[in-house]
Design a protein that fits this description.
It is a single chain. 38% of the residues lie in helices and 16% in strands. It is of the alpha/beta class. The chain has a single domain (25-138, 167-235), classed as Rossmann fold, CATH 3.40.50.970. It has a 7-stranded mixed sheet with strand order 2-1-3-4-6-5-7, with helices on both faces. The termini are far apart.
Length: 255
């Protein structure tokens, strides 16, 4: 019996998405990246896009995304994924093109590329993993680090007078005429995962329909960088990240 036949019989509770490779993921236990990878693989398969999609992953924890999801990938320099995605889509206008970026990558070194690609209304999807810290490089303060949050470069907590305010970059995206859809989601519960999956699928449809730039922010945890257990990280995220980065659509021109 095939997987499709088993699904039709209603006997499958969960199975590995077809496009996820058998490679063991390098992410820390409790990391949100693995969940997002899974729903990405599911969406691409369900929308029959596996031969018609290009992912762009830059430097950061997500740099090895190409090692896990079996689609065409381009690796970009740190922060440059939206610029590379712009070229990829203009050269392949019938392809769905998306970037997969962390907050240090997108909201710091890649701010110019991201903002201007969105302002031009490039038909790409930007998937933005916001865990409020530089995860791969040692837990330094990121633009999205909360006020008072301790990191390796703010051991006594982020100070507004010294370090500035946490950057709500998705709010900036929502103000640009080139964006058609900007939403903030999470993947910390089954219900949240379903909403995030729906949002990413909508973003890909927007790209297919040439509506402009879609931005999907996923507020996430980094239990290694935060020095917490996975359970503690989820609780801390709900109590501290969500009030500053509230869930829901910031802009949706397709209703």
């Amino acid at each position: 019996m095939t997987i499709e036949e088993i699904k039709q019989n209603g006997t499958v509770v969960a199975c590995k998405p077809r496009l996820l490779n058998d490679n063991n993921m390098h992410y820390c236990p409790g990391c949100s990246h693995g969940v997002v990878h899974r729903i990405l693989a599911e969406i691409i398969d369900e929308m029959h896009l596996d031969d018609n999609i290009i992912g762009v992953a830059p430097v950061g924890c997500a740099v090895f995304a190409y090692n896990y999801i079996d689609i065409d990938w381009i690796e970009a320099a740190h922060g440059r994924a939206p610029a590379v995605a712009t070229a990829a889509h203009r050269l392949n206008p019938d392809r769905v093109v998306f970037t997969y970026q962390g907050d240090g990558d997108l909201a710091a070194i890649g701010t110019a590329e991201a903002i201007h690609a969105a302002n031009r209304g490039e038909n790409i999807t930007i998937i933005f993993i916001n865990n409020g810290i530089y995860g791969m490089t040692g837990g330094q303060m990121a633009p999205t680090t909360l006020e008072g949050m301790k990191t390796s470069t703010t051991p006594y907590g982020r100070r507004v007078d010294l370090n500035g305010y946490p950057l709500k970059i998705s709010d900036l995206f929502a103000q640009l005429d080139g964006t058609c859809y900007v939403t903030r989601q999470s993947v910390h519960t089954p219900a949240a995962v379903r909403k995030a999956k729906k949002a990413i699928a909508q973003a890909f449809r927007n790209s297919i329909e040439k509506r402009g730039t879609s931005v999907i922010e996923i507020v996430s945890t980094c239990n290694s960088g935060w020095k917490m257990s996975a359970a503690q990280s989820n609780k801390w995220m709900e109590e501290n990240m969500f009030p500053h980065y509230p869930m829901g659509d910031l802009k949706n021109t397709v209703k």
